[in-house]
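Lecture notes, structural biology module. Today: joint structure prediction for complexes of two components.
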Amino acid sequence: MTQPVAEPKLAVNINEDYCSCCSICGSLCPYDAITRDAEGDKMVLDIEKCQVCGICYSACPAKAIDTIYYDCDSLLKYLVKVKPQYKSDSLVVMCKGSAPDFSEVGKLFGVSDFIPLSIPCVGRLSEEILLQAIATGMKKICILACDEDYCRFDRGSPLTGRRILALNRMLEQLGYGKDAVTLKRNSLKVKVDKDLCIACGDCVFYCPYDAPTLESVEGISFDLDACRGCGLCVSLCPSFALDLENWERERISKLIPQLLAEVKPPKILVFRCQWAVYPPLNGDMSPNIRTIDLPCAGRVDAVHVLEALQNGADGIMVVACSEDDCKQEGVSAKAEHVVARIKEKLDQIGLGERLNFASVSPRYPGQVEEAIGQFRQKIEAIGSKREAK
Amino acid sequence: MIVTVLKPLDEILDSVSPYRKILIAGCDGCTQPPRGIREVETLKQLLELASKLKGKEFEFKLTSVVKQCDSVLTTSALKPYVDDTDAVLSLACGAGPQTVAELFPALPVIPAQNSHFVGIDDREGGTMFDSCSSCGDCVLALTGAVCPITRCAKGLLNGACGGAREGKCELDPERDCAWELIYKRLERLGQLDSLKEFRPPRNYQAKAWKVTP
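The predicted structure, tokenised, for the full assembly:
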């Protein structure tokens, strides 16, 4: 008798037994990944188009959609588990795409102690999870979404706005006051130091959003409404005149030695696009690997790659979305080019094979682990000892 | 702008190896790609990584000059460092190291770049093209603003050699025939008559070695 072969697990599934074919998921999906089939009797998901935003999951009235990332049950279990640790009954849920560090988030909402929960797009939060959180004793719930036109999943932030409005009305009727759930919006943008600008125009060329303009020797100016915070201009600016809120060059530089001091050889540092990988809520950390999340692979900076090597990293991996999946208009392809350029230099001094670029998607669970695993094996084979070329 | 390419790191390492305290000086001027403080920082890191492997230690100081070919700007930018420096590693085009050498006669200067040409930056294609030979006798007004001296492999002044195939140079099938480009431009401008005018051999004396503007 042959063993039943386990079906490969997908990031999102539609359970036909529960689906009433109402099409809400299809109408909300920003990527037209869910359609009614030809016979009109079931909803079909095209996983290749899916960007795993979770909006369909949060909106399905029949709970017919499953997702393996940050679903209601695991979020609630996580909250119950960490609540004693934080000794707080305030919950702040924030989108990874727009949240500055936790202390800044706290200031935004005027709370000092809170349970932070950082997820890719708050559009995946159903009313149920918020109500359950209240039921488990959360006194204050704050949600930090991206500005509406800054949402990387287009509809996640606007949908959250409508959802919280309706939920608060309902909670008010139940006696929870007018604003039981607080919603705020934020976006992380480029910062310019005009004194350092050399007016080379590189950012004008590389920005996919036409945010910078250079018209005189006065230096560069940015239309911050147009900036989408990918960080590509920051990583390429020849004079360090640009920086990105929450992903400042110095902030990442400080993190590198700290993280590498924690791990044992072979020491691997992963620079990871926050949209390419959805990490588990409290996944076990490998004794060899540490990760720095980036707003987009476009923020991967040659200086940081070199600093990691200087601080004892045996291998450095840059994990990005594929060009088609990039949430920032082709920036991941440019990031690959940036990595190739620095690898070319490292090849000259015999360190090139310690740098690796991989594109992955959260729609294929396990893909990133496999890519990092392969790289780790390669680094183990090379060993920690560096030898002169 | 002046188009440069970083020398192989081995060559740079060999050149700097007799020295210990090295000032890496970038140039924010016309060097393309820009060789500002980021390139300086990156080169420093690469040299440190490479030298560690070879058991050699350097002490690097970093700066970038607004225009390294400007004696005033370069003096003020480098002065704070030079007393405690064994050699300057310049990221500017060939004019930069020579400016530094003039200003600080006792200091060895090492170029980190190979300077190739005065070029056009084709951003989309990610390529830069040789476009001006600084000949001192500009003919662009007569050639539809395409330089035959630079862009024709033979530097011809009176029309195509006849060797071009499908618009490409017979010496390099990837290179556009400059005279075909000139013909198309003049046709577009309605100035084909200018081709009938004979141009005598170039006056090579027009190329100046110094000018006083």
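Point to remember: Chain B has a mean pLDDT of 94.
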